[in-house]
Amino acid sequence: MILTAAASFPGRGGAFFSNQETFMNIQGEMIIGRQAVRGSAGSLRAYNPATQAEIEPDFGTATVDDLASACQLAEQASDAYRAMPLEQRARFLETIAEKILAIGPVLIERAAQESGLPAARLEGERGRTVNQLRLFAKVVRDGHFLEATLDAALPQRTPPRPDLRMRKIPLGPVAVFGASNFPLAFSVAGGDTASALAAGCPVVVKAHNAHLGTSELVAKAVREAAEECGMPEGVFSMLIGEGNQIGADLVGHPAIKAVGFTGSRGGGLALVRIAAARREPIPVYAEMSSINPLFLLPGALAEKGATLAPGFVDSLVLGVGQFCTNPGLVIGLAGEQLEAFTAAAAQALAAKGAGTMLTAGIHKAYVDAIEKRGGVPGLTLVARGTGVTNAEGQGCAGQAALYLCDAATFLANPALEEEIFGPASVMIACRDEAEMLAVANHLEGQLTATVHATSADLSIAGQLLPVLERKVGRILFNGFPTGVEVSHAMVHGGPFPATSDSRTTSVGATAIERFLRPVCYQDVPSELLPQELRDANPLGLARVIDGQLRVG
Amino acid sequence: MILTAAASFPGRGGAFFSNQETFMNIQGEMIIGRQAVRGSAGSLRAYNPATQAEIEPDFGTATVDDLASACQLAEQASDAYRAMPLEQRARFLETIAEKILAIGPVLIERAAQESGLPAARLEGERGRTVNQLRLFAKVVRDGHFLEATLDAALPQRTPPRPDLRMRKIPLGPVAVFGASNFPLAFSVAGGDTASALAAGCPVVVKAHNAHLGTSELVAKAVREAAEECGMPEGVFSMLIGEGNQIGADLVGHPAIKAVGFTGSRGGGLALVRIAAARREPIPVYAEMSSINPLFLLPGALAEKGATLAPGFVDSLVLGVGQFCTNPGLVIGLAGEQLEAFTAAAAQALAAKGAGTMLTAGIHKAYVDAIEKRGGVPGLTLVARGTGVTNAEGQGCAGQAALYLCDAATFLANPALEEEIFGPASVMIACRDEAEMLAVANHLEGQLTATVHATSADLSIAGQLLPVLERKVGRILFNGFPTGVEVSHAMVHGGPFPATSDSRTTSVGATAIERFLRPVCYQDVPSELLPQELRDANPLGLARVIDGQLRVG
User: Fold this and answer.
1) Distance separating alpha carbons of residues A298 and A492, to the nearest angstrom
2) Beta-carbon separation of A488 and B171 below 8 A
3) Which among B520, B521, B531 is the top mutation candidate for probing chain A, defined by the most A β-carbons within 10 Å of its own β-carbon?
4) Backbone dihedral region of B416: left (phi > 0), alpha (psi from -120 to 50 degrees) or beta?
5) For residue A487, what is the nearest residue in chain B, using CA coordinates?
6) Segment A96-105, tens digit of pLDDT
7) Model pTM?
8) Is B351 exposed, middle or buried (0-12, 13-18, 19+ CB in 10 A)?
9) Residue whose C-alpha is closest to residue A502's, from A287, A293, A314, A267
């Protein structure tokens, strides 16, 4: 378990967590525009899944008026925010990063308490969150995302061609739903918020109930950054609420123009339905479910099957299997080499201790799903992880599980393709390459597909590749899917049900495109043109001019 | 009426139309893959709206099996088609253009019979259709649409960064619905088909029942081009069918991965609902309804109000008002100058003869809508066009209509914001600039907004601009919206209900983006990488490398 490998994580009950004062700055508040507001609709507490105890303080939940205020402020801020110079927008993103770092260790402590995740992992995640904000600052300064395009007037042509200029503008206020499994990198100031703010959209976050204190700390950091950078009130708000109604109200509010969500298939589809039923339907970017198939081609199995098995198991149990890119399906050709891989994987997995899952609800869903798998005909349990390793006893502990079946069983049983959120995976033994291709063709949309191959496998890999392209957002060779780089070429997306919109990514520089749309300016007087479309190109942008890309 | 200005249009009953033989090559057939097929589900005939008579021959309609065949062939063609060299794909588009021109005058004759549109307009539209295909051939060769992006591996970093490469791939088979009002440019081989084929997607067209013969001629041209260019069977099919079921079945077919549609709000929304209810929801690009507001700012009214009025009326009655960008709303400040403009517009409009509308259904809907307007309190009829001018008598004749009301009436009556498809427009007299801005803020999403302004109007124009940016896809100054240039900077799109997806355009080079999605390749062996992502950049593409745009 990676949990135990975190040297900087002193464990519960140590000095690291006992200091009441460190949490004194958590007040149980929301952020609405410039104000820290205590909601009065009801109250909620955070929960420590390891100790199975509630955590102080109480958080007030948003009233209908609180939600309306946040949305109206966002709407009012929208034109002012998008009109600000790109440099100021970039500085805002960088200042958010600085303010998050300035929170100090209390952020890691609180997030660890609320999520059961180890400090080392959360420190890494904080680094990633800060890097995402800085990457988008660069993207904003670069200005390529504006896709500035100019077609010169042709007054002599019959009929004359007008002067045409195009740029991308922000969609307007964006609702962001924090994810349970990345309390920093996919939450209050995570990838969705960073890319929406970079696009020029105000953001209203619905905090995830699994990390309320973490959310308040980060939301206050964003508020401070907004003040320091002279942002209009309403560029950022964060709401707290119980149950589904607040999310439905937020997505249904007319001021909201797009939605970013990471979570369950059920939750994502509910938001899609609400967004589609609005008077003005809006796009929902929901990252939902994926079982991330891993293909073990014969050459790779023969050459390195034994070393692959522990790597696969490490990827499977990383973060107690609570990664969107968790490898929940392994596909190989039946035979001795797959049997050897299976035996080695079983051995590695049996040595893995159980780990605290993010919430009691996720833990229960995992336990129930594993129980249900027990009754699937043709499915064999190959191995389970060990029980609770922590001397003190550990709440919400999820134990890894590895299953095996043949391809016919898999193809006949849609339940085996459903995501189990946690450290569970199914191995599929295929008769031959044709059956392996049939399994690939049968798959639903996925975030990733992994291929382990050597030069001996190029032929079958070449046949597999176009099938996988149709099914997934990222194809990786000879690695494991659980690391998601934040860079320019990353795609964290994929066909339904991996996401609700396969045309986009929620990680990486191009995530900004989700919150933009094109506007054309025809014969608009030069005084009224935005900077990025003026003849002199004062921002020095790369632009497409009469169909030719010109670097600024 | 522009109809009467078409010198090359000899009129019904002349030699141009009497030759039965010219239509002998219209067989009443569909195209399914490589085959011309006569549907056996039922039969349909084209209709001449001017003579109100059916036109030979009978067209057979698609059975359930015909539809399944077309979709399955498209699915089978998908990987082979997208794997073809870009040069071959570009040649295919150019060959379609050549084959359409090679049909000769019979195409214009048949389209004129079926649509009531004059030959000159249809010849222009054919030119535009051919130019669209050629523009997309250029876009394909250029390869910028692939958005090739490379992030180098950083093996020394902790953790190491893998090699990451991204490109766009086609979504898969696209269903295209021909539009009634552009029987060539937005139909069988129109903008949706051209951009989908350019993206690498096979296309299944549902022919519009208003121009069945035109559709068959063009579909056969596409089939010939596909054969000549060695395209896989199924890259293009065209189906014929009565009623809504065939469209629902097409959008619901699992092989279809995206939909292009131009038509009514009701029709577009029905397809959106069907697509969303699929097991795998798919994007629908529906261009639906727009009333294209035209703002007459005080300086412009004072300086050139008298000359603006006839220009506006010409734009309003162009194509008997059956343009998506028809100016259905005119907004000005109440006063003498607006009164003078109104008087001049009334005079110009009263001199316009009625024109044959595209179909009996469109004509009836127009007549009913005009009748309904008569009962709106506070709305005054300013002028109507004249009756039938054609000596022979003219069927389905739509007479222009211009109305006037104050802003309060408009703001209180949502029906006045509904599109009337035809030559009808409402003028709104505002008390002051604040009320003009209130009207702008109140508007639903639109394809276009037009501003007539002089240098004296820069202040109010500057206040109007950000509001219009939020509402429309194209903002034009001192012109009329009915011309839509096919170029790189064009945006023919806009917020709901103008379209179902404001993030896109259906006209211009970037229309190709609708049918693409990104895929990331992580540590994929160089032998398996697509050309556009190889180190040597064999296609000479512009690529983003480590975040820097580099021209190839």
Assistant:
1) 28
2) no
3) B520
4) alpha
5) B151
6) 999 999 999 9
7) 0.94
8) middle
9) A287
